[in-house]
Amino acid sequence: MPTQTGDGDPRPVILRAENVSVSYQSASGSRVDAVREVSLDIREGEFVSIIGPSGCGKSTLLRAFGGLTRTSGGSVLLQGDPVTRPKPDKIGFVFQDYTLFPWRSVLANTVMGLQFRGVDRREREATARRYLELVGLDWCADSFPAELSGGMQQRVAIARALTTDPAVLLMDEPFGALDEQTRTLLGGELAGIVEKTGKTVLLVTHSLAEAVFLSDRILVMSARPGCIKEIVQVPAERPRTEEFLTSALFDEIRAKVFASLIEEVHRQAQANEESRRAAQRG
Ligand code: ADP
User: Which helix (H) or strand (E) is 17 found in, with range?
Assistant: First the structure.
C-alpha cells in the first residue's frame, strides 16, 4: 500500500507508519487482527484525527505509533528512527482516564516527566508552571486532583505531556469522559495550545465535531482489522473560531466523515454478530 500524505505539503514528515499491522493473542488463544497494513505520513505541525467504529483498532494504532504496542508487521518511524518502545522524551501521551496521581499536587504531577529526566527542582518547577499557565491553571498549582473538575484534570495532563517538549503528542479520547459542553470548550482550548506550541498531534476521538474542528486531516478507519478507509481533508485555516462550528463547510465535512464512518459501524456490528454466533456454535 502506498504511503499516504497530504498533497504537495512542504512540511517534513515527522511520523511515518509503513505497512503497520498489529495482531493480539486473545485469552482463549485465538488471534485478533486489530490493525492491518496501515501506511501513513504525518507532517510536522499537522493535527490528524483517527475516527472509526468501536473496536476497529484506533487505540492499537495510536499505541503502535507511540511504541506502547508491538507491531506484528511493518514499522513506525519517528524522525526517521524506528519506534519499538516508548520514547518519553519525544512522544507525549494524553489518555482518556485522568492519569494524575491523587496524592501529588497539580505542580507535583506536572513536573513528573522532567523529574524522571533528572532535571533539577527549580528548573522543572519553573517549566511546569509555564505549561500550567499555558493551559490556564497556574493558579491551582498547589491544589490536588480531587479538587479539580474532570476538564481541569485533563488540562493538567496536557500540561504534563508538554513539559518535555515532545516532537509529537498522541491523544486517546482525552475528552471522552467529559460532558459535551466541557468537551467543546476544551477542544477550543486545545486548538489554542496547539497553535501556541506548534505541536504535531495525533488524536483518537469518537466525536465527529471534535475531529472536524481540530484537524487538518481525518483518518476514517475501516471495521476490524482496521485499515485506513479514507482520508478526509479539512480545508480551513487553523486555529478555527467558534463560527466554524456553524459553517456550511463544517457541516459538509462532518456529513462526509459520517457517511464513511457509518458504513464501517454497520460492517463492524455485523462482524461482531457473526463472531458471537460462531462462538455459540462452539
Ligand atoms: P478501538 O480503539 O478502535 O476501540 P482497540 O484498538 O482498543 O479498538 O481494539 C481493537 C481490537 O483489539 C479489539 O477487538 C480489542 O478487543 C482487541 N484488543 C485490544 N487490546 C488487546 C489486548 N491487549 N489483547 C487482546 N486483544 C486486544
Answer: strand 13-25
